[in-house]
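hey so i finally got around to running the thing on that chain from the lab meeting. sorry it took forever, my laptop kept dying and i had to restart like 3 times. anyway pasting the input first so we r on the same page abt which one it is
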Amino acid sequence: MKLKKPKFWDYKKPNILSILLLPFTIPIIINNFFNELIKKTNNHIQNRDDYNLKTICVGNIYVGGTGKTPSSIKISQILNKLKYKTVFIKKNYTDSYDEYSLLKKYGDVLSNSKRIDSLTRANKISDVAIFDDGLQDTSINYDLRFVCFNIKNFIGNEMLIPAGPLREKISSLKKYDAVLLNGNDENSDEIISKIKKQNKNIKIFESTYILVNLDKLDKKNKYVAFAGIGIPENFYTTLIKNNFNIVKFIDYPDHWKYNYKEIKKIIDIAKDMNAKIITTEKDYLRLENCNIPKKENIEFIKMELKIKNEDELIYFLKTSI
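ok and heres what got predicted. didnt touch it at all, straight out
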């Protein structure tokens, strides 16, 4: 059973619940310590000389909702324009079908239970392997490592799981190459300052979400919106920013597996409110097993990232790989 992300994770300061959960962060601290030890000793890490291709990891230290998949797609599109043949690598998790399906629309995807096995396959068919997630995977020595953040939430209360939303402390930024700040045009000056305090040489690229299928949607309608993604509130914000009339918003945990009863309830709510239904593209892809035709008054938003300083990102990629 999936649970929604605790709201206190994104408080600006730790609260009593965070403090009570501090002892339970010890396994994460121990795990991170040994991960760093493994990397430093180079034990069980692939040797770059064994591969002809370059590797880029697009991951996060904040759990979920940071825009890893759209960022991976954007980097792939840039590299394709630069005449590099890319392939996506996505670890085979049972709940990542939506992300796999989305990546598949933009290129080849390799998915094994171990990323290193996918890398071996990728070496035969591509110039660059782009890993959607996997920063904490000690088996691979990536050529470039991007850390994704959502501007609105950034690092939450700055505490490790389960006291907060972080896989690693913000100090871990000193070992990474670049940051992708994804959002809806929020002010990011304070965030950039915090990042630079950890690593003054790290490259920072900002992006905003743009809707690419607005011409297929009628914003004169009322909409019931739903989403089961890392930060559902960001989807709601995007809709409001683009002047959609949202009469009800329903959120679910990340990668939620919808069933017939849940979707039928949403359809009934929309009918009662004389509204249409709208969701994210990732959520739309998860409706296949609900036994409800996808065209049953359900529409989806197709979003892409627009990099504000894209020329700098292009130059960074060209000179780094």
